[in-house]
Design a protein that fits this description.
This protein has 199 residues and is an alpha+beta fold. The chain has 2 domains: 49 residues, no CATH class; 134 residues, no CATH class. Helix content is 43%, strand content 19%. It contains 10 helices and 8 strands. Strand 2 and strand 3 form a beta hairpin. Helix 5 packs antiparallel against helix 7, helix 7 packs antiparallel against helix 8 and helix 9 runs antiparallel to helix 10. The N and C termini lie far apart (65 Å).
Protein backbone atom coordinates (compact mmCIF):
# COMPACT_ATOMS: atom_id res chain seq x y z
CA UNK A 1 0.00 0.00 0.00
CA UNK A 2 1.86 3.02 -1.32
CA UNK A 3 -0.02 5.56 0.84
CA UNK A 4 -0.07 3.49 4.02
CA UNK A 5 2.30 5.73 6.01
CA UNK A 6 0.55 8.89 4.86
CA UNK A 7 -2.84 7.56 5.90
CA UNK A 8 -1.48 6.32 9.21
CA UNK A 9 -0.22 9.84 9.95
CA UNK A 10 -3.64 11.27 9.11
CA UNK A 11 -5.22 8.92 11.64
CA UNK A 12 -2.55 9.71 14.24
CA UNK A 13 -3.14 13.45 13.84
CA UNK A 14 -6.85 12.87 14.51
CA UNK A 15 -6.34 10.65 17.56
CA UNK A 16 -6.93 7.41 15.68
CA UNK A 17 -10.50 8.20 14.58
CA UNK A 18 -11.11 9.87 11.22
CA UNK A 19 -14.12 10.91 9.17
CA UNK A 20 -14.43 10.27 5.44
CA UNK A 21 -14.31 14.00 4.69
CA UNK A 22 -10.95 14.28 6.49
CA UNK A 23 -9.52 11.52 4.30
CA UNK A 24 -10.96 12.97 1.10
CA UNK A 25 -9.54 16.38 2.02
CA UNK A 26 -6.12 14.71 2.17
CA UNK A 27 -6.80 13.15 -1.28
CA UNK A 28 -7.29 9.62 0.05
CA UNK A 29 -9.73 8.08 -2.43
CA UNK A 30 -12.74 6.03 -1.30
CA UNK A 31 -11.33 2.96 -3.09
CA UNK A 32 -8.21 3.19 -0.89
CA UNK A 33 -10.41 3.46 2.21
CA UNK A 34 -12.18 0.27 1.04
CA UNK A 35 -8.77 -1.44 0.66
CA UNK A 36 -7.81 -0.44 4.20
CA UNK A 37 -11.11 -1.85 5.48
CA UNK A 38 -10.76 -5.17 3.66
CA UNK A 39 -7.14 -5.51 4.81
CA UNK A 40 -8.17 -4.96 8.44
CA UNK A 41 -6.12 -1.80 8.95
CA UNK A 42 -9.21 0.23 9.82
CA UNK A 43 -12.77 -0.50 10.97
CA UNK A 44 -16.00 1.38 10.45
CA UNK A 45 -17.42 2.81 13.69
CA UNK A 46 -20.39 4.39 11.96
CA UNK A 47 -21.17 5.62 8.47
CA UNK A 48 -18.28 7.85 7.41
CA UNK A 49 -16.21 7.33 10.60
CA UNK A 50 -13.24 4.99 10.85
CA UNK A 51 -10.85 3.75 13.54
CA UNK A 52 -7.19 2.85 12.98
CA UNK A 53 -6.59 -0.74 14.13
CA UNK A 54 -2.92 -1.46 13.45
CA UNK A 55 -1.89 -0.08 16.86
CA UNK A 56 -4.66 -2.00 18.60
CA UNK A 57 -8.32 -1.04 18.97
CA UNK A 58 -9.30 1.99 21.01
CA UNK A 59 -11.14 1.66 24.30
CA UNK A 60 -14.94 1.80 23.90
CA UNK A 61 -15.21 4.91 26.04
CA UNK A 62 -12.51 6.69 24.09
CA UNK A 63 -14.55 6.16 20.93
CA UNK A 64 -17.78 7.26 22.61
CA UNK A 65 -16.08 10.34 24.05
CA UNK A 66 -14.67 11.36 20.67
CA UNK A 67 -17.91 10.87 18.73
CA UNK A 68 -20.44 11.87 21.40
CA UNK A 69 -18.54 14.23 23.75
CA UNK A 70 -21.75 15.24 25.52
CA UNK A 71 -22.44 11.62 26.59
CA UNK A 72 -22.85 10.90 30.31
CA UNK A 73 -22.59 7.36 31.71
CA UNK A 74 -25.93 6.53 33.30
CA UNK A 75 -28.22 3.73 34.49
CA UNK A 76 -26.44 0.34 34.75
CA UNK A 77 -23.14 1.83 33.55
CA UNK A 78 -23.19 4.46 36.32
CA UNK A 79 -24.28 1.91 38.93
CA UNK A 80 -21.45 -0.42 37.88
CA UNK A 81 -18.97 2.48 37.93
CA UNK A 82 -19.88 3.20 41.57
CA UNK A 83 -19.65 -0.49 42.47
CA UNK A 84 -23.36 -0.79 43.22
CA UNK A 85 -24.00 -3.73 40.89
CA UNK A 86 -21.62 -6.57 40.13
CA UNK A 87 -23.06 -7.51 36.74
CA UNK A 88 -21.13 -5.82 33.93
CA UNK A 89 -23.63 -4.25 31.52
CA UNK A 90 -23.60 -5.71 28.01
CA UNK A 91 -23.87 -2.23 26.51
CA UNK A 92 -22.72 1.24 27.55
CA UNK A 93 -25.66 3.24 28.88
CA UNK A 94 -25.28 6.92 28.01
CA UNK A 95 -27.50 9.94 28.65
CA UNK A 96 -27.76 12.74 26.10
CA UNK A 97 -30.15 15.62 25.54
CA UNK A 98 -33.40 14.60 23.89
CA UNK A 99 -32.74 17.48 21.48
CA UNK A 100 -29.54 15.92 20.09
CA UNK A 101 -29.35 15.00 16.42
CA UNK A 102 -30.34 11.30 16.54
CA UNK A 103 -27.93 10.43 13.71
CA UNK A 104 -25.02 11.47 15.93
CA UNK A 105 -25.69 8.68 18.42
CA UNK A 106 -26.05 5.85 15.89
CA UNK A 107 -22.85 3.85 16.29
CA UNK A 108 -22.09 0.44 14.82
CA UNK A 109 -19.53 0.02 17.58
CA UNK A 110 -19.20 0.14 20.55
CA UNK A 111 -22.60 -1.14 21.70
CA UNK A 112 -24.52 1.67 23.39
CA UNK A 113 -27.99 2.18 24.85
CA UNK A 114 -28.92 5.84 24.50
CA UNK A 115 -31.20 7.48 27.07
CA UNK A 116 -32.68 10.76 25.85
CA UNK A 117 -33.11 13.20 28.76
CA UNK A 118 -34.85 16.56 29.04
CA UNK A 119 -32.17 19.30 28.93
CA UNK A 120 -33.23 20.70 32.33
CA UNK A 121 -32.56 17.30 33.96
CA UNK A 122 -29.49 16.24 31.97
CA UNK A 123 -26.94 18.06 34.12
CA UNK A 124 -28.29 16.95 37.51
CA UNK A 125 -25.58 14.95 39.30
CA UNK A 126 -22.91 14.95 36.58
CA UNK A 127 -19.38 14.34 37.87
CA UNK A 128 -16.00 13.48 36.37
CA UNK A 129 -14.56 9.98 36.52
CA UNK A 130 -12.01 7.62 34.99
CA UNK A 131 -12.81 4.24 33.45
CA UNK A 132 -10.09 2.13 31.79
CA UNK A 133 -7.77 5.17 32.01
CA UNK A 134 -10.27 7.23 29.99
CA UNK A 135 -11.77 10.45 31.38
CA UNK A 136 -15.55 10.20 31.44
CA UNK A 137 -18.59 12.09 32.59
CA UNK A 138 -20.79 9.95 34.80
CA UNK A 139 -23.77 10.49 37.06
CA UNK A 140 -22.91 10.57 40.76
CA UNK A 141 -24.09 7.99 43.28
CA UNK A 142 -27.31 9.74 44.14
CA UNK A 143 -28.37 10.39 40.54
CA UNK A 144 -27.57 6.78 39.61
CA UNK A 145 -29.76 5.49 42.44
CA UNK A 146 -32.57 7.94 41.61
CA UNK A 147 -32.47 6.83 37.98
CA UNK A 148 -32.61 3.17 39.02
CA UNK A 149 -35.66 3.88 41.16
CA UNK A 150 -37.31 6.09 38.49
CA UNK A 151 -36.86 3.45 35.82
CA UNK A 152 -37.21 0.36 38.03
CA UNK A 153 -39.98 -0.99 35.81
CA UNK A 154 -37.52 -1.24 32.90
CA UNK A 155 -34.66 -2.76 34.91
CA UNK A 156 -34.02 -6.16 36.43
CA UNK A 157 -35.57 -5.88 39.95
CA UNK A 158 -32.57 -7.74 41.37
CA UNK A 159 -30.21 -5.04 40.05
CA UNK A 160 -32.37 -2.26 41.48
CA UNK A 161 -32.41 -3.91 44.91
CA UNK A 162 -28.67 -4.58 44.79
CA UNK A 163 -28.02 -0.94 43.86
CA UNK A 164 -30.14 0.37 46.74
CA UNK A 165 -28.57 -1.96 49.31
CA UNK A 166 -25.07 -1.08 48.05
CA UNK A 167 -25.84 2.64 48.27
CA UNK A 168 -27.13 2.36 51.83
CA UNK A 169 -23.86 0.80 53.08
CA UNK A 170 -21.65 3.16 51.05
CA UNK A 171 -19.79 5.46 53.48
CA UNK A 172 -19.55 8.08 50.71
CA UNK A 173 -23.32 8.33 50.26
CA UNK A 174 -25.07 11.67 50.73
CA UNK A 175 -28.67 11.05 51.73
CA UNK A 176 -29.43 14.78 51.78
CA UNK A 177 -28.38 15.05 48.14
CA UNK A 178 -30.37 11.91 47.30
CA UNK A 179 -33.51 13.51 48.73
CA UNK A 180 -32.79 16.78 46.89
CA UNK A 181 -32.59 14.84 43.62
CA UNK A 182 -35.73 12.87 44.49
CA UNK A 183 -37.63 16.15 44.73
CA UNK A 184 -36.24 17.33 41.38
CA UNK A 185 -37.44 14.08 39.76
CA UNK A 186 -40.68 14.00 41.79
CA UNK A 187 -40.02 10.58 43.26
CA UNK A 188 -39.53 11.61 46.89
CA UNK A 189 -42.06 9.20 48.37
CA UNK A 190 -40.76 6.32 46.26
CA UNK A 191 -37.18 6.99 47.37
CA UNK A 192 -38.24 7.29 51.03
CA UNK A 193 -40.09 3.98 50.81
CA UNK A 194 -37.37 2.04 49.01
CA UNK A 195 -34.23 3.51 50.59
CA UNK A 196 -35.68 4.25 54.02
CA UNK A 197 -36.34 0.54 54.59
CA UNK A 198 -32.60 -0.09 54.59
CA UNK A 199 -31.37 2.99 56.44
Amino acid sequence: MDRYDDVRQIFESHGGIVRTEDLLRERVHTSYIANLLSAGHISRIKRGVYEWLDDGPKDDLEIIGRLIPEAILCMESALHYHGYIDRTPGVWHIAVSKNINKKKVKLEYPPIKVHFVAPRLLGVGVCEGIVNEVDVRVYDRERAVCDAIRHSGKMDPELVNQAIRSYVVDPAKNVGRLMDYSRVFRIQRKVENLVGVWL
